[in-house]
Design goal:
335 residues; alpha+beta; Beta-Lactamase; 3 domains; 5-stranded antiparallel beta sheet; 11 helices; rod-shaped
């Protein structure tokens, strides 16, 4: 069993205010930080009969008073925040939490803890102001923008995104935005996003989204991780640009490239076949028949020359948006 004086000394050493009250709200014990956070001496704490008086919750704030009193009477946990005026004219934001105590005789007392959350409130106010400015600016931008929280749930989608999808922002929040994804790549993209959140690195991805007119458009999306002031991961902010025309051009060029490859393969096979025939015929001829050999050699040279020109024209044509190569398959008459 730990000595009572050690427990009291330990309680006084912590920065959080701690008090034990009964179900009537009378203070049975408190540590030094409890009074310090309230700008009260130990004597002033003990002079008050009600915990609501000690906490200096104004009578006009009936909701917070009721939260405490109901928690005490029903032995339920509670939590509340309020601004407490200080003697120097400033104010401190206090967070109070209450927990029923259980001992050998059952429940009967309550532990109430106090924390100075002024710094957290200032940060929250700054964050809200920053978010408000961001939303105002992004809603006036032609670029689609969105943000998520640390759990990968969308918390904001700007006007440009909502106009593009034809859906209100409320429908896009959480996982709602996934309803816009093309079914052929939805599962793959969601797996990609899971990996993105796991690694918390800048990323770039392309995918299709259903537009307001019901058709699908291609988007290029870039995102960066966001961090709070204490370097805690807060989510991702992303921007989107439509690249439907670019993707259509890429697909068309790919189709033409495949068509040219097929044409080139056909021409190559035809020329090589006829070159092989000529070379075979030359090898079988009587070398004394110089005139016949000379004619075949001339045909072979012409065929090889035409083949080289065809390859060059195919190369040039493959780099053009509209291929100009339209030569018929070659036909040679051997004599």
């Amino acid at each position: 069993m730990v000595d009572e004086h050690i427990l009291v000394a330990a309680a006084d050493a912590v920065r959080s205010g701690v008090a034990i009250v009964n179900q009537n709200g009378s203070i049975l014990w408190s540590n030094q930080a409890f009074g310090s956070l309230l700008s009260l001496t130990d004597k002033e704490v003990w002079q008050n009969q009600s915990i609501t008086e000690v906490l200096d919750i104004p009578p006009s704030n009936q909701r917070d008073q009721a939260t405490i009193l109901n928690g005490l009477s029903s032995l339920q946990e509670f939590r509340l925040e309020w601004a407490m005026p200080q003697r120097n004219g400033s104010q401190v934001w206090i967070e109070a939490q209450g927990y029923p105590m259980q001992h050998s005789e059952g429940f009967g007392e309550y532990i109430i803890t106090l924390e100075d959350i002024s710094q957290r409130r200032r940060y929250q106010n700054q964050l809200r102001e920053s978010q408000s400015r961001f939303r105002m600016l992004s809603n006036n931008s032609a670029v689609m923008m969105w943000t998520t929280n640390a759990d990968a749930l969308v918390t904001f989608a700007n006007k440009a995104w909502c106009d593009y999808t034809g859906r209100p922002m409320e429908a896009e929040l959480g996982y709602g935005w996934t309803e816009n994804l093309h079914p052929e790549e939805k599962d793959h993209l969601l797996n990609e996003f899971k990996s993105i959140f796991d690694h918390k690195q800048p990323f770039e991805v392309e995918y299709r989204v259903r537009k307001a007119d019901g058709t699908y458009g291609w988007l290029l999306e870039r995102g960066i991780p966001m961090y709070e002031a204490n370097d805690v991961f807060a989510g991702i902010m992303g921007t989107c640009f439509e690249i439907t025309d670019r993707k259509a051009t890429e697909l068309e060029l790919s189709r033409k490239s495949r068509a040219l490859d097929a044409v080139g393969s056909t021409y190559s096979s035809a020329f090589k076949h006829q070159i092989d025939q000529l070379e075979e015929k030359i090898s079988k001829m009587n070398l004394e028949s110089q005139s016949g050999v000379s004619g075949l050699v001339a045909s072979l040279d012409a065929l090889k020359h035409t083949y080289a020109e065809m390859e060059n024209e195919l190369l040039v044509s493959s780099q053009e948006e509209e291929p100009a190569f339209k030569l018929p398959l070659p036909k040679f008459i051997f004599v």
